[in-house]
Amino acid sequence: MQSENSVEDSLHIRKLEVTDKEKGFIELLRQLTVCDSVSDEKFKERFEEIAKYGDDHCICVIEDVRSGKIVATGSVFIEKKFVRNCGKAGHIEDVVVDSSARGMQLGKRIVEYLADHAHSMGCYKVILDCTEENRPFYEKCGFKKKEIQMVKYFV
Amino acid sequence: MQSENSVEDSLHIRKLEVTDKEKGFIELLRQLTVCDSVSDEKFKERFEEIAKYGDDHCICVIEDVRSGKIVATGSVFIEKKFVRNCGKAGHIEDVVVDSSARGMQLGKRIVEYLADHAHSMGCYKVILDCTEENRPFYEKCGFKKKEIQMVKYFV
C-alpha cells in the first residue's frame, strides 16, 4: 500500500496545458456545470485565446501523475481598473475538485495558488462568487463574505 | 428654462475616451471607492492597457455635453471559459452615477448598455456583485440574486 505521502507527492499543481484535454479536463469541469463535449479544435482555439492574455488569465490544474488525470482546477483573471489608483482585482472562477479526490485539501491548494498568483500580479484584492454552502470552505482559505452576486442569463 | 427632454438629450452614452480624464472621470470614480489623483501619464498607460483588450473590456460613460462632465460610468469585461461549451461570461464592475445626476435613470442606462454589450459579444450570462441595498436597482435592470461574493484583500 502507498503511504499518505506518496499519494500527496503524485498530485502536481501547475498551469493548464493544451494536452490536458486528453487528461479529463473537460469531464472534470462537467462536475461543476454544463459542459458538453468540446472538439479538439474548439478546445485548442479557446486555449490559445486565453493564452494571449498571458499571466492576466491563469488556469491551474492538479494532475494525479499516477493516473495521468486532472483531478482539480480553477482559474483567475486579472481585471485592470481605474479605481484604487489604477489598481487590479483578481477574479477566481470555476474551481472544482474531482469527486474521487475530495478530502485531500486539493480545493484549498487550488484557491491558494490562484490567490497567490493574483497577489504576485499586484492585485489589491481577489474575489469570487460561491454558494452559501461553500462559504465555510472559502473562509478557511482566508476569504470573507462581502456582497451579493446578481446574474442575468441570456440563454 | 430647459424642458425635461433637452436635459435628457444632453446626456450622451458612449465608450470611455482618453480625454475623459479632463472631464471629471476620476472624480466620479472617487464617489464609488478609493481613487487618489492619477497622473495623466498613469491614466494614459492604464487606458491603453485596457484598450488592448478591444471589445473584451468595455468602459462606458455618460457625458453631459452641456457641462462637458462625465456623470456616470460602468465597465464590463468578457471572460473566456471552457465551461458552458467554451462559453463567455460578462462581468460588470465599477458602476457609479454622479451624486448631482441621480434620479434620471442613468444607472439603468449604463447597466443596460453594458449588459447589451456582453450579450452582443456572445456571453451566456452577465454577472455583478453589489450590496443588498442596491439589489432592488439591479432587479429593475433584469438581474436576479444568485450567490454570495467572497473577498480577500492583500492591502
TrEMBL record, chains A, B:
GO terms for biological process: N-acetylglucosamine metabolic process; UDP-N-acetylglucosamine biosynthetic process. It is found in: Endoplasmic reticulum membrane. Keywords: Acyltransferase, Endoplasmic reticulum, Membrane, Transferase. Its main location: endoplasmic reticulum. Pathway: Nucleotide-sugar biosynthesis; UDP-N-acetyl-alpha-D-glucosamine biosynthesis; N-acetyl-alpha-D-glucosamine 1-phosphate from alpha-D-glucosamine 6-phosphate (route I): step 1/2. It is a peripheral membrane protein. Its EC number is 2.3.1.4. One of its GO terms (molecular function) is glucosamine 6-phosphate N-acetyltransferase activity. It is an enzyme of class 2 (transferase). One of its GO terms (cellular component) is endoplasmic reticulum membrane. InterPro entries: Acyl_CoA_acyltransferase, GNAT_dom, GNPNAT1-like. Residues 11-155 form the N-acetyltransferase domain. It catalyses: D-glucosamine 6-phosphate + acetyl-CoA = N-acetyl-D-glucosamine 6-phosphate + CoA + H(+). PROSITE patterns: GNAT. Belongs to the acetyltransferase family. GNA1 subfamily. Homodimer. This is Glucosamine 6-phosphate N-acetyltransferase. It comes from Solanum tuberosum (Potato).
